[in-house]
Amino acid sequence: MAESANKGAKVNGNSVAEIRAKLREMRKVIGKKIRLQRKKRDMDTKILARKIGLSQGSVSNIEKGRQSVTAERLWQIALALGCTPNDLLPPVPDNFKDYEANLRKLETSDAEEFAKSVILSSDSVK
């Protein structure tokens, strides 16, 4: 039911599926950057996991882009690796200002509806 409700939902010209794909790609980039920073310090996943209070499997999943990271967890990882959170984030796209301006144009109710549809559809995917 939730899937059909948001099939036509779009934000900034992107469908729910396109946004999910972009989020997956962002998770992969963050994971690769975490792995790069960890390897630079000759640290294995077990040590990083212990430092940030996660299992070794969770760290591995984060590095592979299978598991998302909260802002708080990103800070913990950065501190454990001796870098900044910015070192672990993807670069800002050139068209970010356009994207930001388009998001501001959305009415609050549209943004809330879209957020609900994404949440509902992600619940049905699990």
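the 2nd protein, sequnce then structure:
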Amino acid sequence: MELSSQQLNKIIQDERAKETFIEQLIKEYHQSITRLAFTYVKDQPLAEEVTQDVFLTCFHKIESFRNDSSIKTWLYRITINKSKDQLRKQKFIDLLPFQPDETIKK
């Protein structure tokens, strides 16, 4: 999905356009983002959580998209970063001397 600077500015300025754009991104990229997240976190529910976080981040940070690359590349970079964050968080929890219950762990 390619965006012109004019389209990007409209999305940034118009809340309804932003919501519609994010919905289009979810329809187009949800499956591939989830698959990419799963390759890192190796847990389907966690991959789904990462995917939701990616699209939420996209919604809040769309104005920081510089349009130097495709929106897909930007989403993939966010996905990789969020997945690595989850792995770091899991590694930290695993290092704790006590074992928190399962609800706190995720």
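The domain at 5-105 is CATH 1.10.1740.10 (Rna Polymerase Sigma Factor; Chain: A). The mean pLDDT is 88.
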